[in-house]
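Re: [help] complex structure
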Amino acid sequence: MRPILFSCSGSTADLITLAALRASDADIHCIVQTPGEESRADFPGKAAELFGGEVPWLQVNVPPLRSFFVPGGGKAAAGETQSLSRVLSRFAAAANRGAALLSTARLTLPAIFFLSDPERAAKLSDVAVLGGSIYGGDSTPTAEKNIYADPEAAEIVLARAKNVTLLPLETAKQCRVSTSLFPGLFSTATETTETDAAALGLLLSLEQPQAATRERYRVRVELESFPSRGCTVCDVLCRDKTQPLHTFVTALDETAFSETVHRAGRIWQQGGISDDEA
Amino acid sequence: MTKHKIILDTDPGIDDFFAMLLAADAQNLELRGVTAVAGNQVMEKIANNARGIAQLLGWDCPVSIGADRPLLIPQITASQVHGDTGLGNFPLPAPQKDADERLAWDFIYEEATALDGELEILAIGPLTNLAIAFLRYPDLPQKLRRIVLMGGATEWGNRGAYGEFNFYVDPHAAEIVFASGVPIDMVGLNVTMQTGISDEEFDDIARTVGDSRKVYSELLEFYRNIYRVNDLGFRIVAMHDSLAAAFLMDERVLEMQNAKVQIDCSTGLCRGRSIADFQSTSPNARVAVAVDRPRFWDMVMHSLQNAPY
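Output below.
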């Protein structure tokens, strides 16, 4: 399998995804974290535990592109240009290796990469995005949260990237896993017994293409309408023949998904040690 | 004499070409490089024109290639105005020197860093290159002295009811640039249209350049005929980009007023409109409101007298 560049926010779901990547012995080029509200403070440490500290992890605090449109916005903290440069160098190196970008967060960093280094960005073999929706949203009635968090970035990536695969909200809702498989990840006080693991579905579609049902639409992101801002507008009838189509994962093989989940669970419980190594 | 250290960000373009002639004639500009951006034509032709003009003018500075399309919306060009090549039928020499290896935004940042706050940008095309530079290098605004740009309008537009072409092409880029905090001097259509060339002035130009350099008067004639033949809404042939270059060379050319400028990024009727609030207590630009036409015209004629060929 091609190398993976994992762009995430550092959430609980991202740790589960990392466990699945570890379980499949994936070649992870780098983990890039853009912190958000859902980020865990222990994400870097837990990620390092899973991979024995062998996978590079970088963090950068770049604001959503929208902030650059506001006077006084878009200002980075001291040293952020250097952090951004380091991260984009990693993106470039990954692209040179023909890596697949797996994004489970807002698309700010990928968008800056596609804008500022278009030739290398074109070398990414796949751009797999957890985000978007076909009919309804979760952040707003129309917009899914990863797209809504930076709609301009999403539009840039969707317009420029080749081989885009999105796992939309409708499919994400099918990707639930038992919290008991991942001890220590969830507060014992919580009564929740299932958690979101949509990124596992996206990963499954990358690793086992035959396990995913796909449909291809032309997708754009609504940027102007207030009530629909951040909505992925899917031309499901593909009326516009001039633009490239994007792939939506609309269903997953339940057995394959379950196996992926359980392999990730075992790796988590074994502290990053695979069955073979155990 | 203190020289302005500038990067020329351009999409040549007939009026861009005349602005470059003006810059080449300036004694107080130190040209650090040219960055090309798609606008008047597609990038392949723009890059060729930028390199060819640099060669014609004997510029040894880097010519760097930038954005081949707007940030967020589909590309449009002004081929109906500037012709298929972007420079009418002008016999531009084939460029001998390769484009710089650095992309436009990387080159701008490196120069800005090296010059430590002295670099000024003369931007006479869509602002996509600068916007990408600000996204890619968040600390760039602190490293630039000023941006002088041709774009926008305080009254009517030349692409859409209110949109001026450069802002209309990439309104999102313009909005990012105006939000950057870098001091901006905006030279808009409201003043550039006052530089419209009369028939007498056309004759004057033809006499000035003479037979040996009539390629310049023929280029202007091409430009004039475009406006005469096509229904573009107005018949005035104006030296839009030259006025911004002239202002950088001599600020007495324009009268400026502080304003807070915002760009309408919708794709509707007001796409690309620059909304200048002259009453704002938080201005982000100086906006040109009047032009000293005789002074400007003297500069243009002087540059034509010294034009190569």
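The CA atoms of residues 8 and 105 of chain A lie 5 Å apart.
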